[in-house]
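Session log. Operator J.P. requested a structure for one protein chain; no other inputs attached. Running the standard single-chain path with token output.
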Amino acid sequence: RGVMELSSGRRLIGTDLNFTVPDTMPVARMPAVGGGHIVGGADALAELLSQESLKKYVGVPLDPNTIKGQFQGDLALDLTLGKGVQPEEQKFRASGSLTALAVDKFLGNTKLEQGAIDFVADRSQIKMSGTGQAFGAPAKLDVVKVGQDVGALTLTAVIDDAARAKLNFNSGPRIRGPLTLKLKAPLDKSGAD
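Structure written below.
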């Protein structure tokens, strides 16, 4: 086990940490594996993912000061040791969940609250799925990012009259009752459909 202290004082705690070299016979390149279970605040995870060596996999800037909640997940590493090994040869897999997630300015000025998100990620993709409260209504969230693509968030919510009034969405007398909203936004926040 161990603790990762980030520059802000935020911490992530690792348990069941492991590193194995299955065959130590001298060779130019040899495989190794590692991993562990990591827990901590969602803000600490955001700060870690903002580090120079990791942010290229996330693809979007994260502000740890706008994120609250808890994180737990498992990390598995497939490594190659030896001379001439390039960083892109190292592989990782991560899976876990975020709970009690709150994100200020999640979409524009809209806040995400009560988020419960499961995720899986590796070098080639990130997938997240779960629920939360957005626009004053329960919402389903899906995030998919593949390779170097920007990736997208899809949010589906049912907005009633009270939620539309809170959002200053004046539809006049033509629309009454619940309305299903499906919003798809690129992760770089360049727009939305």
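Operator note: The mean pLDDT is 89.
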